[in-house]
Amino acid sequence: EPVESTTVIATVSQQTSQNSAQTEKATVVRVVDGDTLVASNASGQEQKIRLIGVNTPESVSSDETKNWAEGKEASAYAKSVLTPGRTVYLEYDTGRTDKYGRTLAYVWLNDSANTTSLNELSSHMFNAMLLAKGFANTMEIEPNVKYALSFDLIKQQAQNNQVGFWSHEQNFVW
Fold first, then answer.
1. Would residue 70 show up in a list of annotated catalytic residues for this protein?
2. Nearest Cα to 113, choosing from 126, 104, 102, 103?
3. Active site residue 142
4. Is the distance from CB of 59 to CB of 33 less than 8 angstroms?
5. Alpha-carbon distance 161 to 66, whole Å?
6. Residue 58: active-site member
7. Which member of 70, 73, 91, 102 is catalytic?
8. 38: left (phi over 0), alpha (psi -120 to 50) or beta
9. Neighbouring C-beta atoms of residue 41, cutoff 10 Å
10. Nearest alpha-carbon partner for 16 in 114, 92, 99
11. Fewer Cβ close by (within 10 Å): the C or N end of the chain?
12. Phi, then psi, of 24 in degrees rounded to 5
């Protein structure tokens, strides 16, 4: 098994180092829900940011039947970390916007977007933090899969440790 672990670490390391990241500094305006926020760029222009690679349960649908208690929990966690006025760093992948016109990004809490360890990802990138805390599931949408392998491993760790939503049920699906 140690060989397997070494292989996984090498693969994650290779995955992230092949894509040396450039980030854009932004300021959090507000959190919309667990996986969406509004941020302003250096020129003050506000943009709605959808986190790449993660999905949290719905919490702000006008149709209350679509909202989940877990979605409100994920949203509250996002609001506790992504406070208004906080500086974040946006890293983009291949596709910059989704079909709803939202900007797609990885949101870093500091300018350390070239990290290669899962622990560093889980403590410096908000997308990975949601997974590590068990507040999100992975969601892969091509072509934005730069951190897909890392995200899968972080989610597996959260499931194995039964944290967040995974403490209720191993196959929690929304």
1. no
2. 126
3. no
4. yes
5. 28
6. yes
7. 102
8. beta
9. 14
10. 114
11. N
12. -120, 125
Structure tokens at 167: 């403490």
Contact in structure between 41 and 141 (CB atoms under 8 Å): no
Task: Please state the pTM of the whole predicted model.
Answer: 0.84
Contacts of 167 (CB under 8 A, 6+ apart): 134
Give me the catalytic one of 58, 70, 73, 91. 58
The active-site residue, picked from 50, 70, 73, 91, is: 50
Closest by Cα among 124, 157, 159, 127 to 140: 127
For 164, which DSSP code?
A: G
Angle at 98 between CA 97 and CA 100, to 5 degrees: 115
Residue 20: half-sphere exposure toward Cβ, Cα within 13 Å: 0
Give the type of residue at 51.
L
Handedness of CA 61, 64, 70, 73 (dihedral sign): positive
Q: Residue 152 is encoded by which pair of tokens?
A: 């899968």
Question: pLDDT tens digits for 42-82?
Answer: 999 999 999 999 999 887 777 877 867 788 999 999 999 99
Show the tokens assigned to 16. Answer: 């992230």
Q: Could you report the per-residue pLDDT of 84-99, keeping only the tens digit for each?
A: 999 999 999 999 999 9
